[in-house]
């Protein structure tokens, strides 16, 4: 698919054409299976902690959206995969240099050609987004979608860093929990329930 056909498919909301640009979900899950995964969220509270070395020594480091990294001591420096739901400025793309981009947002109009043609690109299915939204009773955040997806990969361990469910707001902006469309209380409960039942999932 060339850029013009991509833009047309995006405009017409041709999901089948856009999905043809993606690696199959089974291939993505196989690439994460059995690995020690660090999923790094954007909570401001992570800046006060010292998890950088643990993050960077994980088998797979996944970050979210623009992934601010104030210091390597708190955030590490590696980005293997980037779970994305916003337009990524070129400066952030060069800074993060992710090995693979996962487009998680149902808003396909935000998807850019550079992301869609990137190596190993993955488009999260709309059906998966809607199923999780129904379970939570609200639009899921990029973070909770990434957690749910990575757990399905059957990792050896999935450790969450920088997840306080908006208690300290986000490094990516100044909005509070009431100003975003997600139900962070429901997401926190969802994660805690799964962590209690699944020893592979832990919150740092």
UniProtKB/TrEMBL annotation:
UniProt keywords, alphabetically: Glycoprotein, Glycosyltransferase, Membrane, Transferase, Transmembrane, Transmembrane helix
Molecular functions per Gene Ontology: sialyltransferase activity
Entry membrane topology: Single-pass membrane protein
The keyword Ubl conjugation belongs to this UniProt entry's keyword annotation: no
UniProt xrefs under Pfam families: Glyco_transf_29
Keyword Translocase: no
Localization terms from the record: Endomembrane system; Membrane
GO cellular component: endomembrane system; membrane
Main location: membrane
Top-level division of the source organism's lineage: Bacteria
Name of the protein: Glycosyltransferase family 29 (Sialyltransferase)
UniProt organism field: Paracoccus solventivorans
């Amino acid at each position: 698919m060339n850029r013009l056909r991509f833009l047309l498919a995006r405009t017409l909301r041709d999901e089948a054409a856009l999905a043809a640009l993606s690696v199959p979900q089974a291939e993505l899950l196989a690439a994460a299976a059995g690995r020690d995964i660090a999923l790094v969220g954007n909570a401001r509270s992570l800046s006060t902690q010292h998890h950088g070395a643990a993050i960077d020594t994980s088998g797979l480091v996944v970050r979210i959206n623009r992934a601010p990294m104030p210091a390597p001591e708190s955030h590490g420096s590696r980005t293997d995969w980037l779970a994305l739901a916003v337009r990524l400025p070129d400066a952030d793309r060069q800074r993060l240099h992710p090995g693979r981009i996962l487009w998680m947002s149902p808003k396909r109009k935000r998807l850019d050609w550079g992301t869609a043609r990137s190596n190993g690109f993955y488009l999260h299915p709309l059906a998966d987004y809607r199923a999780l939204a129904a379970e939570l009773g609200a639009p899921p955040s990029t973070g909770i979608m990434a957690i749910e997806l990575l757990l399905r990969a059957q990792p050896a361990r999935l450790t969450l860093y920088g997840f306080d469910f908006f208690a300290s707001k986000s490094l990516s902006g100044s909005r509070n929990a009431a100003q975003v469309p997600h139900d962070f209380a429901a997401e926190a409960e969802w994660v805690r329930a799964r962590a209690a039942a699944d020893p592979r999932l832990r919150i740092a």
